[in-house]
Amino acid sequence: MEGGFAQETETREDGYHTPVMVAETLAALLPACGKVFVDATFGGGGHSRCLLEASGPDGRVIALDRDPDAIERGARAVRAWSGRLTLLHGAFGRLATALQQAGVVPVDGVLFDLGVSSHQLDTPWRGFSFQTDGPLDMRMDPTAGQPVAELVNRLRAEELADIIFHYGDERYARRVARAIVAARLQAPLTTTSQLAKLLERVIPGRRGQIHPATKTFQALRMAVNDEMAELRSGLAAGISCLKPGGRMAVIAFHSLEDRLVKETFRQGAQPRSVGHGRLPPPVALATPRPTLRLITRKPWLPTPAEVQRNPRARSARMRVVERLPEGVEAV
C-alpha cells in the first residue's frame, strides 16, 4: 500500500511549492479565461497558481484548506492575485456549503490533491514525520479534534491493530498494537521519536526502502483526521457543485483513497439507483440516470522524469470525470 505523501517539494522563488502532475492537471480541467475553479486542497498553493496562470486574465480559483497554517501562508498569494484567488479555511467535506456562501456555484472545475503536504511533513511540531522529533499530533487542523497521542495512549490493542492494519496494511499490526499498549504502561507515548523507535524495535528489518514506521504513521494520521469519511463527503460535495461540462480531477497517493475515487466515479457514470454497487453512492450520484462521464478509465500517472525529479510523486495517480448535462447518457 502506498504512502499518503502529497506532491509538493521544492519552494520556488515566488514562494509557491512545485506541485505534482501539473501538465495532467491542466489537461484534465481545461482552464481558460473567465472560468472558475476550486482547489479543494490548497496546501502550498502550487496548483492554484497554475490554474490562475492558465485562466488569465479573469479566471478565478476558490481554494480551501483545513490547515490554518496553509491559510496564513497563502495570504500573500491572495493579495498578489488581486481578487482572482479566494482562500477559505475548512475541510473539503463541507465544500458545497463554503462555495454557496461565497456565491460561486456552479463551478467549471474541482481539484483534489490528497495526502499530507511537504510543509506539514517538514514541520516537526506538527508531528507528521517519524524522521524528526516532535509532539505526536498529526492533525491537519491543530485547532480541532484529538492528536494521535490520544489514540495511542487510550485505545485498546484490538482497536489500534484494526486501525494500523486497515489504513496502513501493516502485516505486523497486532504486534505493533501490543507493543504500544505495553510501552504506555511504563510512560505515555507523546513524541514521534518515541513511537518511531518502538516501531523500529518491533517490526523486523527494513523492507526495501520503506522505514518500519511508515505504515503505522500513515494509518494513525488517516484515522485521527477521519480522511476516508472526509473524502467521501468531499467527492459528493464537489460533484454537486460542478456545472454541466465541468470537470473534477483527483490526485490520490493511497490505494484506499484511489479505490474510493474510482468506485465513486464509476457509479456516477452508470445508470444506477440507490443501494447498488460495492460502496454506498454519494447523495449527488444517487440518480437512475448517469451523472458523470469518465475521462480517465485508468488513472493517469506522473511521468518517469517527474518521479526522478520529485520522488514523493511516485505513488500519485489522477482520475478525472466530467459532469453530464441532464438527460445526456455517458459514453
Set down the secondary structure blueprint.
Layout: H1 22-29, E1 36-39, H2 46-54, E2 60-65, H3 68-73, H4 75-80, E3 85-89, H5 95-102, E4 107-113, H6 118-121, H7 148-154, H8 157-168, H9 173-186, H10 192-202, H11 214-224, H12 227-240, E5 242-252, H13 255-268, E6 292-294, H14 304-309, E7 317-323
Parallel strand pairs: 1-2, 1-4, 2-3, 4-5
Antiparallel strand pairs: 5-7, 6-7
Helix pairs in contact: 8-9, 8-11, 9-10, 12-13
Summarize the structure.
The protein is 39% helix and 13% strand. It has 331 residues and is of the alpha/beta class. β1, α2 and β2 form a beta-alpha-beta unit.
What can you see in these coordinates?
The protein has a 7-stranded mixed beta sheet with strand order 3-2-1-4-5-7-6, sandwiched between helices. It is α/β, with parallel strands linked by helices and 331 residues long. It has helices at residues 22-29, 46-54, 68-73, 75-80, 95-102, 118-121, 148-154, 157-168, 173-186, 192-202, 214-224, 227-240, 255-268, 304-309, and strands at 36-39, 60-65, 85-89, 107-113, 242-252, 292-294, 317-323. The longest helix is centred in the middle third of the chain and has 14 residues, at 173-186. It has 14 helices and 7 strands. Helix content is 39%, strand content 13%. Strand 1 (36-39), helix 2 (46-54) and strand 2 form a beta-alpha-beta unit. Helix 8 (157-168) crosses helix 9 (173-186) and helix 12 (227-240) packs parallel to helix 13.
